[in-house]
Records
---
Amino acid sequence: MALALVICSVRIAHTGGSLTGGRFERWSAMNAFPKPVIDAMADRAMRLHHMLWHSARDSWAVLTPQEKKAYRDHGWEPPRPSLSAPDPVTGRRAIEFDNGSGEDFLYMHREMIGAVNEILAELGDPQHPRVEGWPTIPSPGDTEYPVPPPFDIPGDSGFTNAIGNAKTRAAFDRIRGWEAQFTDPAELRQMTLRRLGAGIEFGIHNLMHLRWSAEMPSYRPGGDEFSVDPQWDDSSYNWLADTYSAHVNPVFWKLHGWVDARIDDWMAAKELTGPVPWSFDPPWSGPAGEHHHHPVARLALRAQAGNTEAEALRSRLSSMEATVEDLKQAGVTEPVRFAVHEDI
């Protein structure tokens, strides 16, 4: 489930085409994150981690035993899948509201934000002192965060339609309804943290990823057997509708800053103080590691030539490269990106 307001004026080397023009270029100049953050988020290890984390959770309930083994052998078995197996009658997959996957979603992205905030504090950029989410989700016609127009994804009519639908007024009305629900103290008092996270992920979060995605010169193939050619590692590939690239896009942090603030609203509604009362110690953000709870994000942000973080990051990258190769050999394909469920 991923998304990208591709509003950057840099070029992708293999296409030669500018990503966007006009107002989106102006937006980029004003809002681009400091280069050390963008470079770290565009690092191949960070891209693979973000993609594998989402893919494992979303795919697990529909994988064959052999396909599950490919994830499991590399430490990527999700303890709490995010979606159920298809209903035998309707074929629809349901959101796992109560197994705790929603907490994993909130926790993993809070860890990413925390890692970025550490670096931003050290950089001292007055324009970006920390990740700050939208105080309220931008409405149609917003000049600072305009919704890019619909566009075609060659060979993928289903995803083209999903993105087009996400940019409509009707989609914004759904966003406003969900925003009201997830910021209402009375509603939040009735929710568990796991239901809050799961509802946000497969409703408003996924819809926003698609809504603010923008046309690019080319797109990493979706549904293929993990097409991760290094051509997609250039920092200009920051498409918000792809888990391999969404976190490179500045809008990702506005969007996820909004999501993260809902944890604080939930705490306030429950009259809770202190650390977040996660049900797991800790929730799942990928294979366990010795460097913090989200090892790859912090390693990518702190890696310098020759330091221990760089060595650890190379080790993680090698492991994830092996994971992808085994997934390919098993015939695993990527799940639908940022699928939006209406029944929240």
---
Amino acid sequence: MSPDGGGVGRSGRLEPGRDRRDWSDSARFAAAFVRDPVATASVWPSSTALARAVADAALAGSSRPDPLVVELGAGSGAFTAELARRLDRRARHLAVELNPALAHRLAGRLDDVEVVPADAGELPTLLALRGLPGARGVDVVVSGLGWSATRPGRDDSLLPVVASTLADDGVFVQFGYTFTRWAAPARALEAELHELFGEVTTSARVWRNLPPALVHRAARPRG
């Protein structure tokens, strides 16, 4: 049982008395990693503690009554469910997930989230097909993607694509693992965030995750 004693139902609302982690989802996530470790990127879903830290970073200071929130690499929905709970149906919430089995499962759990089974690299097309983001841009992009998908520091990096979709006051949130922070891709990611955004902050370690993690928050995309 999670500390708050509740879970997220099909509507995305918190339901009392239900564990927020569905362990069958965790098993499916691990199985997806075994089948395709490059696409899945992690062997185990993110913890509730990390989901809360990501949602804190994504929604802190948000004043729009109806934000447009896009999640990349939704996986089994650890971040998706926490974001949906806090947004409480007041947002347009898209969750992009490449793995069709995980996407199907997530769509069945959260009927107030639009789950898109597609490659995050197709983000501009996915938005355009839905008439988004409109004149103002995307308010929040949350990424659960690994380095193989974000490709920081490379010519085909996904980060400039994401930045180009954001509103002038938009926010991009990306988590990472503390034990790999000094690896070349992690350093490239932080350097590119500083190039693309006027404000970049990194959270304290989230110890209650396997493995311990941190959260990067990038705001005010440059031009």
---
Amino acid sequence: MTLNEIRPLGRTSAMLAGLVLAGSLVVGCGGDGNVDPVPATPTEESIALTFPSPTSAEVPNPDEVTPAAAAQLCDMMRAEVGTWRDQGEILARVSFNATVHSWAVRNGGLNDAVLADQTIVDTAAIQECPDVRQQVLEALNIESLAAGLAGF
């Protein structure tokens, strides 16, 4: 045998040894050999989900401004009125609109109700915080809160 004939044999032997080693590792990792067969057809199982019915306190009426919602509107306007004075009429009106939109979303989606009747913002503020309403009217230079709403 020549050296050239021995080299292919060495490579083939090394490759064969590698394959045998890899095969034995795969077989060795297979577990104990007890494999349950997979059923041909899945069995029918049902899942039942039940949700408790919400109480009326959990689901706000999207067409009604509650006293709590009116108080929240007053709190939100009270916190911003000083900033609105500093911003000037134009920027303040934009900020006011954002505040009313945020308030409406937080209270069960009152946006539709405000869209249908913008005066509900005035009505809520007159009942809960007429002093804050007056400060907002002066800061925005408007006659009513409804007049300051755009996009509703």
---
Amino acid sequence: MEPWVVLGAYLIGSILPSEIFVRRRTGRSPHDFQDNPGGGGAWRLAGPAGLITILFDLGKGAIPTAIALRAGFSPPWLIAAAVAPVVGHAWPFYKVIRLDRGGRGLGPATGALFALAFREVVPAYVLGALAAYRFRWLPSVGIVAFPLGLLLMILGRVPPERLAAALAVMLVVLLRNGNLLWTVARTRGTVRPH
């Protein structure tokens, strides 16, 4: 069962509703606007359809992770089930062939983290959302929520397999966004990419 859940999580992760909604509204891809094909990009380019995108992206991270937890997957398979939708979102199978990227992975990562340790990560995400509001830059959510959420998970004594899965999810998002973070750090925050 485990390989099928992981494969299904990757394939569902590869579905980018932002691409669908933005193309329907504008006839073009979010990438054509130099924007991200995730919830934030859908909100900016397709309006309220962005909310559907955000909910879908959260669900595609939360559902396979919850299935893995409920089924009692061993730690390696739990990690794979939590990471697979994030990898699919960031590097969808149909874009890898063209060496193109998908979204940043924050939506499915958030869903997976909520499934792994809801009580510990929600306060971290609240502070992350406040930072994003303050700085008007959506990636601030993860920049604040990931390390703080990890700390709260350690302090809350979250089981090691859940902590390992959460750390793996965060590392995939960091890998996907390393170039963006480096650019912002190098320009001392003067560049505000979407």
